[in-house]
């Protein structure tokens, strides 16, 4: 696995946010988000903009512990905003975050909740945070969603790293259940060369790598759709993907793979 360049992630934060803003344009901001049913489309947008500002504050201040939300300037955005005002607020937050991350570079030490305590972790995390919430917004607005292959594949890599990290620190009982030797999952995106993953369960947890090998169950389809199933934005029985083998094992993974 090779990470993308830090500057590329900074670019993508702006790009993904711009595409999210496009989804918001003309959409019903009160619409419920099917994949995040506790949120409306407006609340989803405020979550993304707030996350950008929280990370920007974290990196800019070189925080050594989690920054409280009440210390993040303008984290909820303008009250009673229409789509255009909300979109402008999102753009401003993404630009400020990208600028702060560029100024810090990828190796600045800063607080994170994960295995990597650098600003580079945040440039990658915010890219994929925005990418996946753009999928949520597209579902709510009922518009098409497409992810650039390079970014989508990296999002799957990162998600596997996150789930493995959560398991390694014992942060979630359900993630701890992702074990049991002799079982495996193969992800195969037919439209993107090299976009294949093998997840192997062991007695102590699971491991993963990029590989084309037979497995207990295989999830196949276009990379954007494989990504959405893997992030639980698209059901595994969707006609846009194909599940071969033990579908119950894939469901077992999807029910338990989480941030914790």
Automatic annotation (TrEMBL):
<protein>
    <submittedName>
        <fullName>Maleylpyruvate isomerase family mycothiol-dependent enzyme</fullName>
    </submittedName>
</protein>
<dbReference type="Pfam" id="PF07398">
    <property type="entry name" value="MDMPI_C"/>
</dbReference>
<keyword id="KW-0413">Isomerase</keyword>
<feature type="domain" description="MDMPI C-terminal">
    <location>
        <begin position="150"/>
        <end position="251"/>
    </location>
</feature>
<dbReference type="Pfam" id="PF11716">
    <property type="entry name" value="MDMPI_N"/>
</dbReference>
<dbReference type="InterPro" id="IPR024344">
    <property type="entry name" value="MDMPI_metal-binding"/>
</dbReference>
<dbReference type="InterPro" id="IPR010872">
    <property type="entry name" value="MDMPI_C-term_domain"/>
</dbReference>
<dbReference type="InterPro" id="IPR017517">
    <property type="entry name" value="Maleyloyr_isom"/>
</dbReference>
<feature type="domain" description="Mycothiol-dependent maleylpyruvate isomerase metal-binding">
    <location>
        <begin position="11"/>
        <end position="138"/>
    </location>
</feature>
<dbReference type="GO" id="GO:0016853">
    <property type="term" value="F:isomerase activity"/>
</dbReference>
<dbReference type="InterPro" id="IPR034660">
    <property type="entry name" value="DinB/YfiT-like"/>
</dbReference>
């Amino acid at each position: 696995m090779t990470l993308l360049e830090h500057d590329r992630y900074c670019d993508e934060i702006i790009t993904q946010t711009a595409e999210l803003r496009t989804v918001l344009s003309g959409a019903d901001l009160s619409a419920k988000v099917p994949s995040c049913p506790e949120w409306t489309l407006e609340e989803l947008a405020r979550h993304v903009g707030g996350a950008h500002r929280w990370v920007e504050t974290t990196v800019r201040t070189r925080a050594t512990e989690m920054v409280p939300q009440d210390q993040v300037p303008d984290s909820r955005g303008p009250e009673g905003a229409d789509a255009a005002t909300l979109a402008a607020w999102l753009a401003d937050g993404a630009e400020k975050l990208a600028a702060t991350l560029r100024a810090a570079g990828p190796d600045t030490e800063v607080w994170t909740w994960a295995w990597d305590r650098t600003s580079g972790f945040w440039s990658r995390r915010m890219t994929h945070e925005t990418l996946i919430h753009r999928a949520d917004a597209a579902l709510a607005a009922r518009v098409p969603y497409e992810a650039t292959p390079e970014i989508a594949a990296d999002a799957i890599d990162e998600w596997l790293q996150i789930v493995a990290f959560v398991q390694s620190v014992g942060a979630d009982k359900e993630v701890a259940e992702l074990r049991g030797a002799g079982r495996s999952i193969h992800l195969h995106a037919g439209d993107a060369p090299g976009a294949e993953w093998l997840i192997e369960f062991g007695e102590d947890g699971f491991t993963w790598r990029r590989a084309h090998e037979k497995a207990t169950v295989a999830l196949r389809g276009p990379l954007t759709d494989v990504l959405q199933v893997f992030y639980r934005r698209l059901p595994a029985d969707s006609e846009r993907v194909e599940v071969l083998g033990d579908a119950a094992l894939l469901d077992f993974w999807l029910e338990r793979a989480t941030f914790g």
